[in-house]
Design brief:
- The protein is of the alpha+beta class.
- The chain has helices at residues 5-11, 14-18, 70-73, 121-131, 168-177, 237-245, 257-265, 293-298, 305-313, 334-338, 343-353, 357-360, 372-387, 399-408, 449-460, 465-482, and strands at 45-50, 78-80, 86-88, 91-96, 102-107, 147-154, 157-162, 199-205, 209-214, 228-233, 251-253, 269-271, 277-283, 364-368, 393-397, 413-418, 485-491, 496-498, 502-503, 519-520.
- It folds into 3 domains: 27-72 and 197-274 and 494-520, Periplasmic binding protein-like II (D-Maltodextrin-Binding Protein, domain 2); 75-188, Dipeptide-binding Protein, domain 1; 276-491, Dipeptide-binding Protein, domain 3.
- The chain is 28% helix and 19% strand.
- Strands 8-9-10-1-11-18-12 form a 7-stranded mixed beta sheet, with helices on one face. A 5-stranded mixed beta sheet has the order 15-14-16-13-17.
- Strand 14, helix 13 (372-387) and strand 15 (393-397) form a beta-alpha-beta unit.
- Helix 9 runs antiparallel to helix 13 (372-387).
- The longest helix is centred in the C-terminal third of the chain and has 18 residues, at 465-482.
């Protein structure tokens, strides 16, 4: 499907004005502490608008389309405050060995799964075994690369042993990413939730929405506040906004930045969390013409990142040329300047590739039609490509049709967000395009050995700060040289825009939606 960038930009022209409006930072509350106003909040049915359907109930999938469910159906071993401090959740304590080669976790003894079964170390062990399996571990598998094995000395204790000394933040990242699944429900978790969370599945209508009901035996006293949470899927952001403005829903989760800015100015609450995503142009480097490194490297300079952030996200976020949020220890602002939009440099690399015009244009860009920013970014890049003589079509797909192609790696290129960009750098490998093994796009063996080695170096480098920094610098240089994924900007995933009648709104460190603290004023 051919599209016209400038026609679209004219249609969205108001966005340039919206991007200049002052934007106040919303709440970035950590999910665990009780809110001061909780005592005054009332229960009821919380009505939430979404823009896309879920894929499954497996928390190890950890796809953005599941972010409204993960921390409502499940709990993690530990959590982070908005400032990145590790605090207890299902684990009451964790003891890291002096040589950083193991961590011993103590579990709460008053937690039950939705089935009524008690949480024990056997469930955590089964969860770790699933995560460590390349076929079942999904987006958690890469995080388990540091783990050697584990033991369960008793029902409330798990000791995780590492292959080598592991940095402190990488250990707590692992614990925060470990979301216990009931052992008896692991084989069916994609279709039947098996968690300890504040809410339980009540009903689901595929493509329309689902309803959660309060867990009557939830271990956090006084939570959840709302008795039910109704999620409704809207095909367009504008429709979700209209539903909020007409009081048909109470809250929008995961709407666009542009709508959030407009609705905030109209008096609605806007909550921004501490865990942004980074938008990445994903390249299938196993397919021609992208097997050519010079051709891929040209895309580092073909991204009008400033324009993409302004038009696609109303200016909410940061321009980046690496897959890190500014809070990441691997973030390096110099790369943003080095790889700024530069058509001349792109042309030099294209010429050096030796590809013919026909070869360079023989591919399509897969586009998530439900996500307006993805559409806009794709159109901006399509225009830049035309400027250097590369004319390609946009393959726009909606809903599950796009999700299935993206998760299976069945595309030439596509824009897609990545998470964990504010945590330990090797956590980026939890995202499908950055996986070092079992990569659904690049397959095995991984075609970029330097990248796999760079991730391994980050995972095994500890000691002097200079050595750690050198491992980050090496990874960054490999990323731009291999150029199988080209970051453009960070942005606020999981934005909450809510009615003024709601209180207790918050997002967790990954910007996952947390409903248990939300109630009515």
């Amino acid at each position: 499907m051919k599209t016209n960038l400038f026609r679209t930009l004219r249609r969205l022209g108001f966005l340039f004005l919206a991007a200049t409006a002052p934007v106040a930072m919303g709440g970035t509350n950590w999910i665990a502490p009780a809110h001061a106003e909780e005592a005054a909040l009332k229960g009821g049915t919380l009505r939430v608008a979404l823009l896309s359907d879920m894929t499954n109930y497996d928390p190890q999938q950890f796809s953005t389309v599941n972010f409204h469910l993960v921390k409502n159906l499940y709990d993690s071993l530990i959590e982070y405050t908005a400032e990145g401090e590790a605090v207890p959740s299902l684990a009451t304590a964790w003891q890291i060995a002096p040589d950083n080669t193991s961590v011993t976790v103590t579990l709460r003894d008053d937690v039950t799964f939705h089935s009524g079964a008690k949480l024990t170390s056997a469930d955590v062990a089964a969860t770790l075994a699933k995560a460590a399996d390349p076929k079942r571990g999904k987006n958690v598998y890469a995080t388990m690369s540091i783990v050697k094995d584990w033991t369960t000395p008793d029902a409330n204790t798990v000791t995780i042993n590492f292959k080598a000394p592991v940095p402190l933040r990488q250990i707590t990242d692992l614990l925060q990413f470990t979301i216990p699944i009931e052992a008896a429900g692991i084989d069916t978790v994609e279709t039947v939730p098996a968690g300890t969370g504040a809410y339980m599945l009540d009903s689901r209508a595929v493509g329309q929405g689902l309803t959660l009901k309060a867990n009557p035996n939830y271990w956090r006293k006084g939570q959840p506040i709302a008795e039910k949470v109704d999620f409704t899927i809207f095909s367009e952001d504008a429709s979700a906004s209209a539903a909020l403005e007409s009081d048909a829903v109470d809250l929008i989760y995961g709407g666009t930045s542009r709508s959030a800015v407009r609705l905030k100015d109209a008096g609605y609450q806007m909550v921004r969390g501490p865990g942004p995503l980074v938008m990445v142009f994903r390249i299938n480097s196993t397919r021609a013409p992208f097997t050519n490194a010079k051709f891929r490297q040209a895309f580092n300079y073909l991204m009008d990142r400033e324009g993409m952030l302004r038009v696609g996200y109303a200016g909410l976020g940061e321009v980046v040329a690496l897959p890190w949020a500014p809070a990441s220890p691997a973030f390096n602002a110099a790369y943003t300047e080095e790889f700024a939009y530069n058509i001349d440099k792109a042309k030099e690399l294209i010429a050096a590739s030796g590809l013919t015009p026909a070869e360079m244009s023989n591919w399509k860009m897969l586009v998530w039609g439900n996500d307006e920013p993805s559409v806009v970014l794709s159109q901006i890049l399509q225009s830049a490509l035309a400027e250097v003589g590369i004319n390609i079509e946009l393959d726009v797909r909606q809903g599950a049709e796009y999700t299935e192609a993206q998760l299976a790696g069945d595309y030439d290129t596509t824009f897609g967000a990545v998470g964990n960009v504010q945590k330990f750098p090797s956590r980026v490998a939890t995202n499908s395009i950055y996986r070092g093994v079992k990569n659904p796009v690049l397959k095995d063996p991984h075609p970029h050995a330097d990248y796999v080695a760079a991730i391994a170096q980050v995972n095994t480098t500890s000691g002097p700060d200079e050595a750690v920094k050198a491992s980050y610098d090496n990874l960054n240089r490999v990323l731009v040289n291999d150029a199988f994924a080209i970051p453009t900007n960070s942005y606020d995933t999981g934005l909450i825009v809510a009615s003024p009648k709601l209180g207790g709104l918050s997002l967790d460190i990954d910007n996952l939606f947390v409903a248990r603290t939300v109630g009515f004023q």
